[in-house]
Amino acid sequence: MQSDIDIAQSTEMESIDVIAEKAGIDGRYLEHYGRYKAKVDYDMLKDGAGKDGKLILVTAITPTPAGEGKTTTTVGLADGLVKIGKNVTVALREPSLGPVFGVKGGAAGGGYAQVVPMEDINLHFTGDMHAIGAANNLLAAMVDNHIFQGNDLRLDPRRITWHRCVDMNDRQLRRLTNGLGGGTGGMPREDAYDITVASEIMAILCLAAGIEDLKRRLSAIIVGYSFDGEPITAGMLKAQGAMTALLKDALKPNLVQTLEHTPAFVHGGPFANIAHGCNSVMATKLALRLSDYVVTEAGFGADLGAEKFLDIKCRMAGLTPAAVVVVATVRALKHHGGAKRENLEREDLAALNMGIPNLLRHVDNITEVYGLPAVVAVNRFPADTEAELKLVEAKCKERGVHVALSEVWGKGGEGGVALAEEVVRLCELPSRFRYSYESRLSISEKIEEIATKIYHASDVVVTPAAIKEMEQLERLGFGDMPICIAKTQYSFSDDPTLLGAPENFTLTVRGMKVSAGAGFIVALTGDIMTMPGLPKIPAAEKIDVDADGRISGLF
What we know:
Shape: globular
Number of helices: 18
Strand content: 15-25%
Helix content: 25-40%
Oligomer: single chain
Distance between the termini: 13 Å
Largest sheet: 12 strands, mixed
């Protein structure tokens, strides 16, 4: 059986000019990065009218080590919509090098449902990640330089909240002391690194409506607090102009294609367990301008990615999804039902029945809390039995939700036709879209709404330290911002070992901070880290390149 990279490398791509023409992009807006990828100038959004496409969100059940295939389903659904004659664009996130070289590997889809050139997309692509890291670290350098040069703003070195970043899993950088050496070496202080996709600048880039909005948001970043407890911003350091200069090209959406030559924007990549987990507003709005249907995805399970997509991105950008696809696999549901990983290929109706409530809760959240029509896409694997598939279908039917088999990994768009037809039907239903909470609520009330409505927690406990931080944020005028809960992706709760659909648990908020530029408040729960580590056997060990420059091992 061919690997993902073998399939991608054996497929002949069309030139990016052909893809742009297919998408309706005038050549004057195209900035080439080789033959098969390009950036689209953001001025295209300002010039003239366009289509008013329907937005389709692809989300998933709570992730498991077995994998769900959300990106694969997203790409395959788009190609399936093309198969039934629809005008479609895909809008995806950019992969981070951390997961690529760590546990997960690549994030460009899989099998015959991929975006290409997959090697470029998974590695350096058009340099967006590097630009974000450079802007982040410029601000960090200006923070420490300001202190070294006399500290006119009276920035308290003990209360600096801005971290340096690198787009790599490197646990050694989680906590460190810098400024050593004395004299011109700077002021010694404790510091930390985040992975680039956890940087607030990544979130800002993905939520910015244009270059002026980008600069405004960058200026609002809080880098720390003065000795008097007042926030110190990037604007006060006069950093926003140079940061915007580094990011002006990164703000432009990246155009590529699927294996079946459907236009695809791949732009921005915040993680959904620590940020809002969606591709850029710029790319989404541009896709909606160009197409009748836009298929996009949100990171991790629907309790994280979809919740933040709907409550943060849609609220800020004025977007309304027409339909939602919830991706599930039989083997992942059996994992949630207690089956061991080595037994997931065996038929186990008991474990499957125990795991299905996880899927149903995600479905209920989408249909009942947010009022959106949904379909369950079962990403089919060869070991799935007819009895298992029928059980999933029957349980979903009891909830009034249809199930469509997704066979896009092996069949490409043809394997997504049934899902595409159901999505088109759902898109014609009247919208009842609503948020899970109102902006006017207090910070604690908004957290409680998410915890009880979406996670099904029975109680929320806020630690004394987090209460103090929350009171300060409300006093500074940030109380009306949406909430971004940083939580494990492996459970509805803040305990990654609670699988399935846990209830009557307590969600503990241990910290709170404001991402003033991004425009949301981050509530920290559990043992969330913004710098992952590599596993015992990282995926990087399997990646190689031959004398002809052909990459292997990138899956």
